[in-house]
Automatic annotation (TrEMBL):
Its EC number is 6.3.4.15. Signal peptide: none annotated. One of its GO terms (molecular function) is biotin--[biotin carboxyl-carrier protein] ligase activity. InterPro entries: aa-tRNA-synth_II/BPL/LPL, Bifunct_BirA, Biotin_CoA_COase_ligase, BPL_C, BPL_LPL_catalytic, HTH_11, Transcriptional_repressor_C, WH-like_DNA-bd_sf. Gene3D superfamilies: 2.30.30.100, Bira Bifunctional Protein, Domain 2, Winged helix-like DNA-binding domain superfamily/Winged helix DNA-binding domain. This is Bifunctional ligase/repressor BirA. CDD domains: BPL. The lineage of its organism: Bacteria, Pseudomonadati, Pseudomonadota, Gammaproteobacteria, Alteromonadales.
Length: 323
C-alpha cells in the first residue's frame, strides 16, 4: 500500500461519524504535523469523502465509511482477489487481464475514477462508501449461452441480501436491484474480445452501502443504500457471500439455463402486472408486463398479443398504471 493511502486509511480509521476528533490527536496518532493532517483531509474530498471540519472541534465523517478487510478477503475467497484503494474501473482492469484469469477471479476497489453503468452512464464511486466489484467468468458454449445472465446475477445478489435480513428488495429488468422502490445496485456485463469460441465475460456489480449527501445529489434518479437498515451488513462479509453465491448460481446457469431462475426473478420483479413502456429508440411499445421468458426477454401483453422483446438498447419504464 502506498504511503499516500496508508496515511489516509489511518486517518479514516480514527475518524467517526458520531463525534469530532481533533487535528492534534490525529497528528499525534500518525506522528505527522497538523498541516499534513489538513492536507490529507482536503485531498480526501477529491475521492468523494465528506469530512466536516469545525474550528475548535476538529474533524468528523459526514457519513460512515466501511473499508474492505483485504486479509479476510484473501483468506476466505476461493479465487484470486485483486484489491485496490483506487482504480479507474474494476471492469476495465479485468477486461485488460482476461487472458490471465480463471472463472471466479474477482477485482474489488474502494474507489473508481471512471466507473461505468449501462449504456455508458457514469457510476459514481466515492471512496469506501459502497461495493465496486468485477467477476471474471468463462462460458464454454459461447455467447448464445449468456442470454439472461444479468438476471441471474441480480437474483444471486438479492438471495444474499435476503439471507442477511434485508427486506423490501425488488428487481428491474435487465440489471437493477431496488430497495423500497429506489435503486440499490446495478450490474454491467462486458465481453472480452477473443478469437476463441468460448465466451469470456466480466460481470461488474455495484451495491450502495452508505451514500454521502453530496454524492447523492449528483445522482439523477431515486437511490437507496443499506445504511438505513437497523443492522447494516458487514461489507467484507457481504462481498464474500455474494462471490460464493455467484459461483454457485453461474454453474447452475451453465448447466440448466435461465429456466431455473425465472420463478425467483418474477417473485421480486417490481413491474409484474403493471403497464409499462419499452423504449427502443426511435420506437416505444406499451403493454402489460408479464415477466420474462427462458431467453431473458421481456414479455409484454399488447394489442397484438403476448410479445417478447430483448436487446441491449431497450429501456423499461412504468406508466404508473396498474393492470
Amino acid at each position: 500500500m502506498s504511503i499516500q493511502w496508508h496515511n489516509k486509511r489511518q486517518i479514516l480509521a480514527l475518524l467517526s461519524s458520531d463525534h469530532f476528533v481533533s487535528g492534534e490527536q490525529l497528528a499525534q496518532e500518525l506522528a505527522i504535523s497538523r498541516s499534513a493532517i489538513q492536507q490529507q483531509i482536503e485531498a480526501m474530498g477529491e475521492f468523494g469523502i465528506d469530512i466536516y471540519s469545525v474550528k475548535g472541534k476538529g474533524y468528523k465523517l459526514a457519513t460512515p465509511i466501511c473499508l474492505l478487510d483485504e486479509t479476510q478477503l484473501l483468506q476466505q475467497l476461493s479465487n484470486r482477489c485483486f484489491y485496490f484503494n483506487d482504480i479507474p474501473s474494476t471492469n476495465a482492469f479485468m477486461l485488460t487481464h482476461g487472458q490471465e484469469l480463471k472463472s471466479g477471479d474477482i477485482c474489488l476497489a474502494e474507489y473508481q475514477s471512471a466507473g461505468r453503468g449501462r449504456r455508458g452512464r457514469q457510476w459514481l464511486s466515492p471512496y469506501g462508501h459502497h461495493i465496486y466489484a468485477s467477476l471474471y467468468w468463462r462460458l464454454e458454449q459461447g455467447m448464445p449461452q449468456a442470454m439472461g445472465l444479468s438476471l441471474v446475477v441480480a437474483c444471486s445478489i438479492v438471495t444474499v441480501l435476503k439471507q442477511m435480513g434485508v427486506s423490501g428488495l425488488g428487481l428491474k429488468w435487465p440489471n437493477d436491484i431496488y430497495l423500497n422502490d429506489k435503486k440499490l445496485a446495478g450490474i454491467l456485463i462486458e465481453l472480452i474480445n477473443s478469437a476463441e469460441q468460448a465466451c469470456q465475460l466480466v460481470i461488474g456489480f455495484g451495491i450502495n452501502m452508505s451514500m454521502s449527501a453530496s454524492q447523492g445529489e449528483l445522482i439523477d434518479q431515486p437511490w437507496s443504500d443499506l445504511s438505513t437498515l437497523e443492522s447494516m451488513p458487514d461489507k467484507t462479509e457481504l462481498v464474500i457471500a455474494v462471490h460464493k453465491q455467484l459461483k454457485q448460481d453461474l454453474k447452475r446457469f451453465e448447466a440448466a439455463g435461465l429456466k431455473d431462475f425465472i420463478d425467483a426473478w418474477q417473485a421480486d420483479d417490481i413491474f409484474m402486472g403493471r403497464e409499462v413502456s419499452l423504449l427502443m429508440a426511435p420506437n416505444e411499445v406499451t403493454g402489460i408486463y408479464k415477466g420474462i421468458d427462458e431467453q431473458g426477454a421481456v414479455l409484454l401483453q399488447t394489442a397484438q398479443g403476448l410479445q417478447a422483446f430483448v436487446g441491449g438498447e431497450i429501456s423499461l419504464r412504468a406508466t404508473n398504471k396498474m393492470a
